[in-house]
Amino acid sequence: MDALIENKMDRRKFIQQTAAAASLTAVGGLTLPSFSTKRQKHITILHTNDTHSHVEPFEATHHKNANRGGVARRATLIENIRKENPNTLLLDAGDIFQGTPYFNYFGGELEFKLMSMLKYDLATLGNHDFDNSIEGFYKQLPNANFNFVSANYDFTNTVLYTHVKPYQIFIKDGLKIGIFGLGIQLEGLVHPKMYKETKYLDPIEISQDMSRILKEEHQCDLVICLSHLGYYYRRNPEYISDLNLAKATKNIDLIIGGHSHTFLPKPTIVKNLDNQNILVNQVGCYGLNLGRIDFYFDEEKNITTGGKTILV
Amino acid sequence: MPTTLKRIAIVFCLSILFISCKNEKYAVVKITAKTTAIDSTLASVNAITETIAPYKEKMINEINTIISYASKDIVRTDGRLESSLGNLLADLSYERSNPIFHKLTGKNIDFAMFNYGGIRAGINKGAVINRHAFELMPFENLYVVVELTGEKITELVHYLIKGNTAHPLSKHIRLTISDSDFDLKINNIPFDKNKSYYVLTTDYLQSGGDLMNFFKTPLKRYNLEYKMRDCIVDYFKSVDTLKSYLDGRFNRK
């Protein structure tokens, strides 16, 4: 508990420092001769999903994934990308736990520690993150130097109350990036004694609220949904999924998915409720891949052609 | 620069910033995407490998800890409609689950049934280590007890006849099948289709896994909140030597 409070304090201090640094940079910018010169901004979003305790690469004898994956290698790739663009966010769409004995023996401690070393910025919860019960997840939180978000799990009567927020806003290069989390219906998937009094709320209704809060109230430049709903259920197309969510909502720029272990060679472009193109992406499972989406921004007054170019 | 001057300068700059940048709204003009495979072409970050190392060592020690011995190979393929491994799994499941069920309800389980496909590995003669239990049962299946009508038990038997497979059954069953008929005794008492029975299985099979649909709508369902793998490990630790035999509990005339 103490460690957790300390952790949160550090996080607050960190946010204050970041804010101070941001305003200094802004003041510094004034000394440049032409403040009004148009300047493009560039935000990189990196993401994983369903890593399932796959800390090490698969063994050379594995029938399908021989020599693939591994957190230490993922770290190299992330470091290189961060050097290339410091305005990078690293996200995970859930099911961090369960899949190798590392979880069975250490309860997720190592997974969270490594993700902290990789400087993950934010994650959401997958159904397997409840495998050691909601208390088991809570117990490991001090090892995570990043936050979890979930907008459609109501944790009011659980230990996670106040520890998992619906959304988080990041400021990178002066741009506001709002990210909210969505979890899958736990009933029938997870034993009730594991998720206790966690209440599942309708993902579409919640997303409509979230995108309004982030886009309109907080004026976010980018709205991202971290989802563990699953990409699409071909046999049950009416089930809520990332593709269905994308069509039924607006003001979301990107849905990063998980749960269905879907490997998309490139993001899917979906028309939302406003007939705008948005992206849905997912990169399989077990840390075999790292997803990357780059958003390039320009000042609205400089945009003459209107609309955005999606090169995927 | 004296502090006050500095302060004035900052306030001045900030107000310019505020005035001139207030309405500078940015919009997305271009999006690109790229998914990169994590493979051996990427170097490893040492700090990560070093953080993993002590956990790995502890895990390997733990996973290689000897928990029992097998006096012979115990496999799922040594019988026609039963197997030494299937019999062992069904019997140990019953042995450790019945006390939990009895405490919960005051009743006894009649028999246990699982699926052949759920046995994922055999046990070799010699030392049995924790890893074998993981290989045998890599899933997180939990035990459940269902109360089934005689009609559902008949469906269960027809499933076994049709499948013609060595699905694990506990020693309480004596089932002889032919193409058209069957003879079933449960705890040495002839099966009574007007009676209901308590059957131990897993949450996976109870929800219709392996098309065991007769489990899906029981009269009653009890969750034992005990994982099958934990039970296997607990049982292995409790006996010096694993013993299992074929006893003809499920056979064809």
Description:
The complex is a heterodimer of chains A (312) and B (253). Chain A has 312 residues and is α/β, with parallel strands linked by helices. Chain A has one domain: Metallo-dependent phosphatases (Purple Acid Phosphatase, chain A, domain 2, 4-Layer Sandwich). Helices cover 29% and strands 21% of the residues of chain A. Chain A contains 8 helices and 14 strands. The longest helix of chain A has 29 residues. The N terminus of chain A is likely disordered. Chain B is of the alpha/beta class. Chain B has a domain of 137 residues: 5'-nucleotidase,  domain 2 (Alpha-Beta Complex), CATH 3.90.780.10. Chain B is 38% helix and 24% strand. Chain B is built from 7 helices and 12 strands. A 4-stranded mixed sheet of chain B has the order 3-9-5-10. In chain B, strands 8-7-6-12 form a 4-stranded mixed sheet, with no helix packed on it. Chain B is extended, with a radius of gyration of 30 Å. The N and C termini of chain B lie far apart (103 Å). About 4% of the residues of chain B have low confidence. Classes of the chains: A alpha/beta (312), B alpha/beta (253). Chains A and B meet through α1, α2, α3, α4 and β13 of A and α1, β1 and α2 of B.
Which properties best describe this structure?
heterodimer, A: 312 residues, alpha/beta, Purple Acid Phosphatase, chain A, domain 2, six-stranded mixed beta sheet, five-stranded mixed beta sheet, 8 helices, 29% helix, B: 253 residues, 5'-nucleotidase,  domain 2, four-stranded mixed beta sheet, 38% helix
